[in-house]
Fold Protein FAM49A-like.
Amino acid sequence: MQLKLLLQVCPLVAKLKRFYEFSLRLENALRSLLEALTSPPYAPMQHLEREQALAKQFAEILHFTLSFDELKMTNPAIQNDFSYYRRTISRNRLNNQQLEAENEVNNEMANRMSLFYAEATPMLKTLSNATTKFVSENKTLPIEDTTDCLSTMACVCRVMLETPEYRCRFTNTDTMLFCMRVMVGVIILYDHVHPVGAFAKTSKIDMKGCIKVLKDQPSNSVEGLLNALRYTTRHLNDDSTSKQIRALLQ
């Protein structure tokens, strides 16, 4: 019975491994994109205008990241199945047995995957760490070059979502959702790397406008995005955050 259950779980574990390995590739890709979109001599808006293909790739990564994490948060079976796999593999190891499945995900890989999937939003956590690391490793690059790039993208998305002449060009709800996910993604990255975050009065992101745009949509399509702002940002509960913004996210 135990072997039968394990054989059912193994394909799922293999898929989780592929997503974990993909997160590492996304981390490297994001850092390369940030370097391309923030390097001198151009300002962030100039970069986004000159490097539209790279900006689109950045947006695609954020769209996937938010999509993946929303699905992960609504599927607790992911961690339950993986925990069962790890327990079974450990038990067999104690009994000097090694199953073929262990060749796919050995103990060291399982430990790394466990830390990854323990996060509420694992892909977003990976990108936030990558952005923070990019800023810390590029000390000669003013942090404003990175935060201005992120805030500019957030502004572009907000304007597209709230301006009727732009919204009428959206052919379906998927395009709206794409813009909302990108907007929320860059807000979260901005909040992780900016010294006072995205919610302070000095922030270059219009947080009230961004939150209002989200709340104007059907709740079932944006609740995951609002939760991402509530629970994966760093500065929401700082003293510099106004009561009005906190109230908007309640």
Observations:
- The radius of gyration is 20 Å.
- The chain has a mean pLDDT of 86.
- Residues 30-74+121-248 form one domain.
- The first helix runs from residue 2 to 38.
